[in-house]
Automatic annotation (TrEMBL):
<feature type="domain" description="Helicase HerA central">
    <location>
        <begin position="132"/>
        <end position="292"/>
    </location>
</feature>
<dbReference type="GO" id="GO:0003677">
    <property type="term" value="F:DNA binding"/>
</dbReference>
<feature type="domain" description="Helicase HerA-like C-terminal">
    <location>
        <begin position="452"/>
        <end position="530"/>
    </location>
</feature>
<dbReference type="GO" id="GO:0016787">
    <property type="term" value="F:hydrolase activity"/>
</dbReference>
<protein>
    <submittedName>
        <fullName>ATPase</fullName>
    </submittedName>
</protein>
<keyword id="KW-0413">Isomerase</keyword>
<keyword id="KW-0378">Hydrolase</keyword>
<keyword id="KW-0347">Helicase</keyword>
<dbReference type="GO" id="GO:0004386">
    <property type="term" value="F:helicase activity"/>
</dbReference>
<dbReference type="InterPro" id="IPR033186">
    <property type="entry name" value="HerA_C"/>
</dbReference>
<dbReference type="InterPro" id="IPR027417">
    <property type="entry name" value="P-loop_NTPase"/>
</dbReference>
<feature type="region of interest" description="Disordered">
    <location>
        <begin position="562"/>
        <end position="602"/>
    </location>
</feature>
<dbReference type="InterPro" id="IPR002789">
    <property type="entry name" value="HerA_central"/>
</dbReference>
<keyword id="KW-0067">ATP-binding</keyword>
<dbReference type="GO" id="GO:0005524">
    <property type="term" value="F:ATP binding"/>
</dbReference>
<keyword id="KW-0238">DNA-binding</keyword>
<dbReference type="Pfam" id="PF05872">
    <property type="entry name" value="HerA_C"/>
</dbReference>
């Protein structure tokens, strides 16, 4: 019999893609030698082939031993000499491998172990530019782990793994491979970096946008800006006004916003929108600060009402006087409200009354005023050169924002959200993703649209804003991206340490999984249910994967593979390494200097802790005493 050295056993039971094999006595010796190289027979996750005519069927070992005995053979005396495999594809002998099956094995077909030489023929086309190398197959260092870029991006993907499993390093390796300008000169990637981990790792290939840009002296850092007028009305309400008590109040604000946008459009016409097509959601600049002042006056204003005087109350507002004798009219661009005199209804010449028809918007107006005064909200409400004047005129339109995010010279744009206030984080993420999606969607047939230049959106710590328990704007737009984005050239990469908390709709649309070590049973079951392949044997290996090792399976790889990810150089790794309590490595070689094994500083600088705390930035400039 040909290939006796790789023979494992015979097919005894076929149920869909699950095949049960009775193992031969020879295969039970433990080691099988093929081409002079030894292989462990029957290893979980190893590959087998079943020759049928001129074709080979390929499968993955998922069970070995007594648990693999078919139900209808439990009474037989074959003992534990059984193996269960999951069929995954086929290919002509000495030909190319293809996913899917056109035929099934029958009882008595021979089953063989797949050698490293055969695996190279299945896995490898390393000379093809649309394959990127991430490392090597764990049990075959000579076989590179290749991922098809076409299917990785357009069919979406997920990188999942417990904290400390090497998830961030894997993402950094992926970004380094995908941003190689030699192979992909027009690569386009947007990363949502929740904790500011990737700026240092990818600074040579990325533009970094953050609220406190420039605090580290990095030339690649730019200010993170999100003009309020580019938001839809619902988004603006969530960010600026909060919840409304009733529809009447909400409709009043909606009408005011529309009128401000209409006046702006009449004064400064803009291509693509006219008075007839303008809506409250149109991205037309207007002065939110002037609107806030108007709403404040209409909510809290008082006016002088002397006897016999008739006229517009708003032309005779009752402002308090400051120490300099001037009326305290406030400053809308600094969020300082006007101060009105109290109501005086006693008989006399100078009566002071409330303005007629006061609005019930006290809570909403006060909230917006507070946000206008807090500098940490300036990236939305005072966005530098995107800030409109009172008449709606702006120095720079939103096309410059899209050019920064989507069209810079560097292939990666990192949106560092570590400084975004927690109460607006989910809404901010949702708005950013909606702006990007709308731009790519409507520009799908243009040169910078997604069909001509696809976009990959990487969402770090996705469980924070894609939680299945809460429905928010970010979750809604991501669902839309994973369902429809493929048609318009938008790909999503979901990165999470708790996949069980992510909306199943999002995970189920991911065509490729990079599954690192997962110790939580609910996380593993969530991943297993989302995977298109029936590979319980492989998902059962997730708790025992080594750090930096991943099982890659799905549409972007020919076969599921246990892969050792090649990490980036030490100076290009994410800022997410675990602190080392006691390190035997010298200070010159360690990645994490410090720990309990090193003598403490003579004069610890706790003032630097307070400085970083107040600045809300761990990379503040250090205060160093001048040496004499």
């Amino acid at each position: 019999m040909k290939n006796d050295e790789s023979y494992l056993g015979d097919v005894q039971d076929v149920s869909g893609t699950t095949v049960s094999i009775a193992m031969s006595i020879k295969s039970l010796t433990g080691f099988v030698y093929i081409d002079g190289q030894g292989y462990r027979a029957g290893q979980i996750g190893s590959f087998v082939r079943i020759p049928i005519g001129f074709d080979n069927l390929f499968g993955i070992v998922s069970q070995v031993g007594a648990s693999a005995v078919p139900e209808n053979r439990k009474d037989f005396s074959e003992g534990n000499r059984w193996m269960t495999i999951q069929l995954i594809g086929e290919g002509p002998r000495n030909g190319s491998f293809q996913r899917g099956l056109s035929q099934y094995p029958t009882i008595g077909d021979k089953v063989h172990l797949v050698s490293e030489r055969e695996l190279k023929g299945i896995y490898g086309q390393p000379d093809k530019p649309y394959f990127v190398r991430l490392g090597h197959i764990s049990n075959a260092e000579s076989i590179p782990a290749l991922v098809d870029v076409n299917k990785l991006i357009t069919r979406h993907s997920a990188v999942v793994g417990t904290t400390g499993s090497g998830k961030s390093t894997t993402v950094a390796s992926l970004m380094n491979a995908l941003s190689d300008t030699k192979n992909y000169p027009a690569a386009r990637i947007v990363m949502l970096d929740i904790h500011g981990e990737y700026g240092q790792a990818l600074k040579e290939r990325a533009n970094i946008f953050k609220i406190s840009a420039g605090s580290r002296g990095m030339a690649s850092e730019k200010k993170l800006l999100l003009p309020f007028w580019a938001l839809s009305f619902e988004e603006l309400c969530l960010v600026a006004f909060g919840e409304f008590g009733n529809e009447k109040d909400k409709n009043i604000v909606m009408e005011r916003v529309y009128q401000y946008k209409l006046k702006s459009l009449i004064k400064h016409p803009r291509k693509g929108v006219t008075k007839d097509t303008l809506s409250v959601d149109s991205p037309v600049p207007f002065s939110l600060h002037d609107l806030w002042l108007e709403l404040f006056i209409d909510t809290f204003g008082t006016y002088h009402n002397p006897k016999g005087r008739v006229g517009d109350p708003r032309s005779n507002l009752a402002y308090e006087l400051g120490a300099d004798g001037k009326e305290l009219k406030g400053d809308p661009y600094r969020g300082i409200p006007p101060t009105f005199k109290s109501v005086v209804t006693d008989a006399g010449e100078d009566k002071i009354n409330w303005l007629p028809g006061l609005l019930g918007l006290g809570k909403q107006v006060l909230l917006l005023g507070t946000k206008l005064r807090i500098p940490r909200y300036n990236f939305i409400f005072s966005p530098d050169h995107f800030l409109p004047a009172s008449d709606g005129k702006i120095p720079t339109d939103v096309d410059e924002l899209l050019k920064d995010w989507l069209g810079s010279d560097n292939p990666i744009s990192i949106l560092d959200l570590s400084g975004v206030p927690a109460d607006t984080l989910q809404t901010t993420i949702g708005v950013m993703l909606r702006l990007i999606y709308d731009a790519i969607f409507w520009a799908r047939d243009l040169s910078q649209g997604g069909r001509h230049r696809p976009l990959l959106i990487v969402m770090e710590e996705a469980h924070i804003y894609l939680n299945d328990a809460t429905k928010n704007m970010a979750s809604s737009i991501v669902q839309r991206i994973v369902k429809e984005g493929r048609k318009y050239g938008i790909g999503a990469m979901i990165v999470s340490q708790r996949p069980s908390e992510i909306d199943p709709t999002v995970l189920s649309q991911c065509g490729t999984f990079f599954a690192l070590r997962l110790t939580n049973a609910s996380d593993r079951s969530h991943i297993a249910s989302a995977m298109s392949d029936n590979l319980d044997g492989l998902t059962g290996m997730l708790p025992i994967l080594r750090t930096g090792e991943a099982i890659i399976l799905g549409e972007s790889v020919k076969l599921p593979m246990r892969t050792t990810i090649e990490p980036p150089p030490k100076d290009r790794r994410p800022d997410s390494q675990d602190p080392i309590v006691y390190d035997e490595v010298s200070l010159d070689e360690t990645e994490s200097p410090g720990g309990w094994g090193i003598k403490n500083e003579t004069n610890p600088r706790y003032d630097e802790i307070v400085e970083a705390w107040r600045a809300q930035d761990p990379k503040v400039s250090k205060v160093v005493k001048a040496k004499k």
